[in-house]
Amino acid sequence: MVSRVRVWLNRTYAENVFFMDQLRRNPSDRAVEIHATHGDADSPVLAAADTAELEPEGLSPAGYVEYALAQCRRRGIDVFVPRMHQSAIVAHRAEFEAVGTALLAPPPEAVAVFHDKVIAYEAVQAIGVPVPPWWRVRTADELLAAVEELEAGGHKACFKPASGAGGVGFRVITRSPFSLMHLSGFPTPYVQLDLVLEALRQAEEPVDWLVMPRLEQPEVSVDCLTGPDNRVRLAIGRLKNGRRRGFTLQEQWLEPARRIAEGFGLHYLSNIQFRMFGETPVLMDVNTRPAGGLHQLSLCGVNVPWLAVQLALGEDPGEVAPPFLGQDYTVVSGPRPVRPVSLPQQRTEGSEALLPAVPAPVESLGVSAQVLPL
Predict the structure, then answer these.
(1) How far apart are the first and last CA of the chain?
(2) Which of 35, 290, 309, 334 has CB atoms 3.0–4.6 Å from 370's, for a disulfide?
(3) pLDDT over 60 at 353, yes or no
């Protein structure tokens, strides 16, 4: 009898409830048990798992590695998908292997390159992948100089943290004075240049921002599955243009994504994002982890989370092509169960399992994203 696979997702995005669903519905009909940990007691990821715990707060990266190793030993984890403290965890891959756990994450060298967007842009540019013009700024004067140069070229300037995930900290610069117009409707990413400059001049510490032109749609996120031999097994682009989403296999997107994934050893799951600068597709960002929207590839007839787990277990699926490309779709919100009550105080070592898997009552619902065809 084939043994069950025990997978752990640490503090991850709510959308990864769909990642978990796909693991359980794998085409190999393999039994999968999922362990989840999080800092938010009401994360739907905890409710969706077979076993779950609250993560301790305030751990240093080294302390978190010790916590993770203990989890893997005690829970019998076969495959660990780390998001929280990924860079510290992958540096100890041999220690996880010693307790029987495979890390579904790239090697530390690859994670380090893409932790800092400036280093990433320089490295990617060196292998011939186009990037937008960019400036690293830490002071008000540096920001103003970068904005003026971009505006002189006819571009809108935007900025984001040099290190960070998702759209956290992204803002678009405007010179329109602050007025009641900015207080009507929904909040936008636009921020007044004079307010930003004043905030920088009053700040006690310098910032570390990347300033670049605002790139145009479409945005294409290429999800890659890459083996430890640095060979891409699967690459599919998810195309975003306003509310409309779709899929693409056009080489103008896939070829540079493969070059990055293979050239830098982005083993297992990565997400490589592009936008348009004029007529040229340019790199926007590289995520060394599964994308929150990875489950959307199920519309193309592939179960990518399970393919990645197989690869991590040494069961190489070989090169995989989607049997078809799904129709265009949009993303909407829907209900998802959470725990009936917030978790009790963090368990202590040696106590009973904190969170058995129990269904949440109907009134205890969270919200997660679902896809609907257009």
Answers:
(1) 43
(2) 334
(3) no
